[in-house]
Amino acid sequence: MTTAALDPRAGRRCASALNTLHALHYFAPELGREAQALGITHPKAVNFAMRAAALGAAGPGTVAATFYNYKYEAVARHVPAVWRTAAPEQVLAARARAVDAMLRRLLGDEAVGSADMEEAARLALRAAEACTRPARPLYAAHADLAVPEEPHLAYFHAATLLREYRGDGHLIALVSAELDGLEALVTHTATGRGFTPRWQLATRGWSQEDWEAAHARLRERGLLDGSGGLTDRGAALREEIEQHTDRLDRAPYEHLGPEGVARLTELTSGFVRTALAAGAFPADLIGKG
């Protein structure tokens, strides 16, 4: 096991690339088609089912808690009803089929079957060896799933493990910073690196009134200015949250070591660039809006 010190920024860069790779499937038409074949047609129901299926037939409280920034009432409109339409095991199988088709479409069969893909899978799985289950519910649920045999699906599985491990830790940091789910969305959007308000409201179930109320609370705390931008204090808090998340997420990247992290980042970034060039994400997804 590698124990050499690692620049936390290197781990964050690698995690960011892996997160982007994982997020591709949420916008893939293949996911919607597979869900529709199961009888799941509402976009929010598709999202909740595909991400939460590893938890089993979880109720709305569990899903809202682990997702954190979705409005509970929006979750409860589809969960647990979605499990009466399709069992979690069926949803997981459908997700695997969608991811397979998506990666072949965005990256091409040659990349999917390449030595680089096998290397990326090997490195990501090695990093995930250092993840632990306590206080990491979404990671732990996915860690109980079998690793796929095909390298590109094993790579996506490992990217999901690492994404959810960091995500679970990120929620710990957000709670420590006393930001609720909606306030976390608003402050992240204010950095210019999160979803635009239009996408946040469309996907997370919050209303414009909810959004404006969160702005008011954050202005009272001195985190947002009158135009909705981060104050110096707000920017400092967002960076503190990321540093806290980095500390909670350091184990897999320290385990992989500096050379492995650099190589995994290089490979993943290359795959992501190819996917983005193929139009994987909506053009108006990221920004302050």
Task: Characterise this structure.
It is a single chain. The protein is an all-alpha fold. The protein has one domain (8-277). The protein contains 16 helices and no strands. The protein has helices at 8-23, 29-38, 43-52, 60-67, 72-76, 81-85, 88-107, 109-112, 115-128, 137-143, 151-176, 181-190, 197-204, 208-220, 232-248, 250-277.
The description of the largest β-sheet is: none
Q: Please state the CA-atom Rg, rounded to the nearest Å.
A: 19 Å
Envelope shape: globular
Q: In terms of structural class, how would the helical and strand content be classed?
A: mainly alpha
Protein name: SalK
Pfam families: HTH_67 (PF21863)
Layout of helices and strands, plus pairs?
Blueprint: H1 8-23, H2 29-38, H3 43-52, H4 60-67, H5 72-76, H6 81-85, H7 88-107, H8 109-112, H9 115-128, H10 137-143, H11 151-176, H12 181-190, H13 197-204, H14 208-220, H15 232-248, H16 250-277
Helix pairs in contact: 1-11, 1-16, 2-7, 9-11, 9-16, 10-11, 11-15, 12-14
Could you list some keywords that capture this structure?
289 residues; mainly alpha
What's this model, at a glance?
The chain is mainly alpha-helical. The protein has helices at about 10-25, 30-40, 45-50, 60-65, 70-75, 80-85, 90-105, 110, 115-130, 135-145, 150-175, 180-190, 195-205, 210-220, 230-250, 250-275. The chain has one domain (about 10-275).
